[in-house]
Amino acid sequence: MKNEEDLEANLAGDGQPASEEPTSVESSEARERWFQRLRKGILTSTADKKETPEGLWSKCPECNYICTTTELKENLFVCPKCNYHHRIGSIDYFDIIFDNKEYSIHFDNIRSKDFLGFTDLKSYQKRLDEIHAKTTLKDSMRVATGNVNGNGLVVAAMDFEFIGGSLGSVMGEKFARAVDYCIEHKLPYLVISKSGGARMMESAFSLMQMAKTSGKLSQLSDAGLPFISLLTDPTFGGISASFGMLGDLNIAEPGALIGFAGPRVIKETIKKDLPPGFQRSEFLLDHGFLDFIVDRKILRDKLTQIITLFKG
Amino acid sequence: MPQYPNRQFLDFEQPIKTLYEEIDKLKQTAEKSKIDMSDSIRKLEDAIDDKRKDITSHLTPWQRVQLSRHPDRPYTLKYIEKMTTAFMELYGDRNVKDDKAMVGGFAQLDGETVMFIGQQKGSNTKMRQLRNFGMPNPEGYRKALRLMKLAEKFNKPIVTLIDTPGAFPGLEAEERGQGEAIARNIYEMMRLKVPVICVIIGEGASGGALGIGVGDKILMMENAWYTVISPENCSTILWRSWEKKEVAAEQLKLTATNMKNFGLVDEIVPEPAGGAHWDYAGAAELMKISILRALAEVKQVAPDTRISNRINKFCKMGFWDEL
Q: What SUPFAM superfamilies does this protein's entry cite (chain B) (predicted)?
């Protein structure tokens, strides 16, 4: 399964597991072959290279439908053929949700730090530095405020690219400050989850963010402000076992993988294949854990409706 | 409590086993030759006591994890039995079933009614299976919440004893909402009007532990561990191999001393020399002292203040830079 693979690789902070070095063909038998390649490597000079502009075309991982990225973007990153919802980042969501793509980003000055000196195959600090160098992301969550059809809303959205959207101290603190902002300005709160779970490199501190965020939701609740939890592909572990499942409304995008334990772990535990559709949004709706499933194309309208209904 | 020769010894406890074997030999010789060897035996017994102290004074984090899983280590019901009187176990979540991996009920602690809740492991193969190795299903967390609400209604304090390798990762657990069950508990525990004391008595793994781990005071036994993931699973994900569990245990900084220094737990509950499995009554007595002290302290605070203190306590946890 594609999704379970990148789930763990991303939590480990890598795109792909390191591939094995190609074995060199040095045996005498190999040398005798007439089709033996004598000179290795690509010898075309860079100037003569014909470049295909990167990201011009996009292929749907579900139905293999190919369309231009512009077309896909106009369709809000939803496959025009099979309705597959591509994984998108926080900024894409802000652009989709807020009126005229106008919003302000808050608390972007909070940065993760390697307080424990955690080192696995790489040090945590090195991972952070590498991601900061490679992307414009500051951490796995961005908080923005703006209007949805004229209604004020605070949105916290996750970026899966940043160590698998993992829950660490920074996400916890941004979440907490967003709640304070909601209370101060009497605004509803929407959190868009997309995460493999807790950030292991912060050890018990990341675990405690589950308690911290839930405690803040308790304050939001006392202020009588609605909390909408939108779960997208994938949402696992510490997120689903804390604020992800604590929405006044829990909603999800179609086909998203959502659960507590990852599919691989469950499969290894029960030693059986998992039924088709297991841990998908539709499965959760069926079992009573979601209020409804929302297509990205009508997300803005649904949010407007929710806010209006809570206000009215 | 098992006595030698029914005791089980971990690798690093082997020197103690050797001393026991020497005592055995001396006893046999004494019987055969009718010579009084009680002096030598007493010396060896003292040596065992010293060795017990010596071993726990310099354990690696991974050895500490092994000790927390010692097959002779006491579990939740044992502590309740030793610390309290009139324990009345209560069953079921009123929804699906009774989860045997989560136990609870009212008992008298030093003359006062207290609600005890905790994960329960089994002490032999059959019981281990019945208790699902201390890994609760959603109904376990919902049973725990039901009991907490019951205690709140009658204004009784709550003590939770945490000992789990994690919430059960099963198919039915997902169907019945494992994530939601844990999330609900964390949220509701934040809002409980009565005092809540949590004690990590063995393994404190991840959300499965935190699902009964939100309280006014968090205590942790000397040889327990508490973190976001078990060292084995951490090793599998980050090192892509099961083999690095020792390193993972080190990197996770999961011991009671680490947790106390980080301010994530309030107090370390000392254990008898060599660990709780050497003296159940002694371990329970030490825990009782800590629980009573913590309870007395948090009872001084008004319920509303206690709740906001509780929320603030967890809100302070974390580290970041602010540019």
A: ClpP/crotonase (SSF52096)
